[in-house]
Inverse folding.
């Protein structure tokens, strides 16, 4: 990413910018659901966008990797099967995404582009513009400083906004971001050094929120990567996991999937990619009935090996966790990321009640 | 590959029953360009779709030296293979691939080759065996050891007899439990080691079969002086995408569908999760 161009937009002008964006693109933003929850959803009016919100429990990964994604339709025409790829949708903007989620989207984009590139995901990523809202006030459960995914970003955004009170500091990270600002260029002024100073002060204050505490991924990663986590520890931790798969569901970087066809009707069917979870026992179940990963602790070990081992870090260049804290919120037991990482570091498990 | 997960349509040319629940299909890509452009290495596999029932990985049981049509040998043991077994010549299926690393055929040149297979483990080795027979002068002695649960579970019965007639080829077959008309060896695959002479120093061994059989055969080969790097096997896990994305087949950070399915025993020993 080249060095960001920096601009400023008055708070009172933001809705006009959004109106311009809405005119040209589909916009997805944190918004209030009819039931009162905060969620990422398509919006139709600038007023729908939330600016002061708790990060939605469902991350925006669904807009890069839909939970159920039709890949192709199979149709039998004149006795012959036709495979029709599902067409892509139009350009979309993800607006007011938090730093952790933008990092996660970059992680997923890189994962799908690595080695054999998944062209479907690549095209979708290319048509997605990500506008982040830097976390001037970090969320209660987040630990993004430990995973280099926040509270402010240096990469992984197309546009990064920082709330300066009366205005937003605007960092343009990519050509896609430049194009988005360009939709209403007159609303933006070049940033002055004073604006930059206020933005930097906001970042320092946000970082200070975390104090000196980190969850020490490094030492846990060393233990995981060198097989120095006892099988008994995995087993005893897994007793506190209810096997629900909730953590992998809300995790913005989890991307395990299965491929399945809808039942054939009149020779037609649709092939879909579906979210799956390595925490389900059937994840590795073979047609013969053989299952190489039956022990619950083995499945947990798998999850944390993928998330936080040097082997994967070497491949991905990132930890498979962005510190969003969603697993802490969703886990009905105590086997969320920071608790397990702490237990691995200490080498003991106390039910997860005395962590950090 | 235009779309990583999109299958191409292929037509079933022929089918042949190997055993009561194992069938070999010959398949041809419907698109002539695709057929002409399809290249693979023994040991690689295909994702085979039964439209409306999903897709699953099957090893390529034929050799690239024998034209662009391919063969797969499929045991009926699940929803998809049940559906596949209802299809026959003229029916269409989907193919995607080839996937996986395959055997390093060039590394085998000049070596004596030992193939050890159990049950439905013979098809991936058959691809390499054909390949070796079609380039016979490039390789040394060939020894084929094969076992199945009962005589009726042996696949490629006619071919086994053909292979035996080739020059410098030894074929030994055993069954775990004898059955009508069987007058051959009875016992698990490792008993065949006492019926052949192997030279560990000049040989590469290829082992494929159920996990328990692989375990004992590998132990035997190592005991007979084979270096771990010279014992090569193909591993299996539940697979979905076949292209290293979906995470079903991981062992640690290795993806069997992408880094494998072919590994030597040293690599397998170093694998952990």
């Amino acid at each position: 990413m080249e060095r960001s161009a920096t601009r400023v937009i008055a708070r009172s002008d933001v809705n006009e910018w959004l109106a311009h964006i809405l005119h040209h693109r589909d916009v997805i933003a944190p918004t209030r659901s009819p039931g009162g929850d905060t969620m990422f959803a398509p919006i139709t009016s600038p007023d729908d966008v939330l600016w002061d919100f708790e990060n939605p429990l469902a991350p925006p990964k669904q807009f890069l990797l839909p939970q159920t994604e039709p890949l192709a339709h199979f149709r039998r025409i004149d006795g012959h099967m036709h495979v029709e790829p599902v067409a892509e949708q139009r350009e979309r903007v993800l607006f007011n995404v938090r730093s952790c989620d933008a990092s996660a989207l970059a992680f997923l984009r890189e994962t799908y582009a690595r080695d054999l590139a998944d062209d479907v995901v690549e095209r979708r990523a290319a048509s997605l513009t990500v506008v982040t809202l830097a976390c001037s006030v970090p969320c209660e459960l987040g630990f993004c400083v430990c995973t280099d995914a926040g509270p402010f970003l240096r990469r992984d955004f197309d546009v990064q906004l920082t709330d300066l009170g009366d205005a937003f500091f605007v960092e343009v990270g990519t050509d896609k971001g430049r194009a988005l600002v360009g939709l209403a260029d007159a609303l933006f002024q070049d940033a002055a050094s004073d604006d930059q100073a206020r933005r930097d002060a906001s970042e320092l204050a946000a970082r200070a929120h975390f104090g000196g505490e980190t969850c020490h991924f490094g030492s846990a990663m060393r233990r995981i990567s060198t097989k120095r986590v006892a099988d008994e520890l995995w087993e005893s931790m897994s007793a506190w996991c209810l096997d629900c798969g909730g953590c992998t569901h809300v995790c913005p970087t989890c991307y395990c999937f299965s491929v399945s066809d809808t039942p054939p009707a009149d020779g037609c069917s649709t092939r879909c990619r579906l979210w799956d979870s390595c925490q389900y026992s059937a994840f590795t179940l073979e047609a013969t009935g053989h299952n190489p990963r039956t022990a619950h602790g083995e499945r947990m070990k798998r999850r944390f090996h993928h998330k936080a081992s040097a082997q994967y870090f070497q491949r991905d260049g990132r930890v498979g966790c962005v510190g969003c804290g969603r697993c802490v919120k969703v886990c009905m037991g105590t086997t969320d990321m920071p608790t397990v990482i702490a237990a691995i570091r200490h080498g003991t498990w106390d039910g997860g009640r005395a962590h950090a | 590959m235009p779309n990583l997960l999109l299958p191409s349509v292929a037509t079933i040319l022929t089918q042949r029953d190997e055993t009561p629940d194992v069938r070999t299909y010959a398949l041809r890509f419907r698109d002539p360009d695709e057929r002409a452009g399809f290249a693979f290495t023994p040991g690689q596999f295909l994702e085979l779709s039964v439209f409306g029932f999903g897709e699953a990985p099957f090893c390529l049981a034929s050799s690239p030296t024998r034209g662009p049509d391919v063969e797969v040998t499929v045991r009926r043991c699940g929803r998809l293979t049940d559906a596949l077994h209802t299809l026959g010549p003229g029916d269409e299926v989907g193919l995607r691939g080839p996937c996986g690393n395959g055997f390093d055929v060039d590394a085998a040149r000049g070596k004596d080759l030992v193939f050890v297979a159990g049950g439905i483990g013979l098809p991936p080795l058959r691809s390499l065996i054909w390949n070796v027979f079609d380039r016979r002068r490039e390789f040394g002695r060939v020894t084929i050891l094969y076992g199945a649960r009962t005589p009726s579970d042996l696949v490629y019965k006619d071919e086994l007899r053909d292979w035996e007639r080739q020059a410098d080829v030894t074929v030994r077959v055993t069954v775990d439990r004898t059955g009508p008309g069987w007058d051959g060896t009875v016992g698990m695959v490792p008993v065949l080691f006492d019926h052949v002479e192997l030279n560990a120093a000049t040989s590469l061994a290829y082992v494929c079969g159920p996990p328990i059989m692989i375990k004992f055969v590998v132990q035997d080969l190592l005991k007979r002086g084979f270096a771990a790097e010279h014992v090569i096997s193909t591993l299996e896990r539940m697979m979905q995408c076949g292209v290293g994305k979906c995470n079903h087949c991981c062992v640690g950070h290795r993806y069997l569908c992408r880094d494998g399915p072919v590994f030597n025993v040293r690599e397998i020993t170093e694998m952990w999760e």
In short: Chain A has a mean pLDDT of 93. Chain A touches chain B through 50 residues (CB under 8 Å). The longest strand of chain A covers residues 68-77. The CA atoms of residues 203 and 260 of chain A lie 45 Å apart.
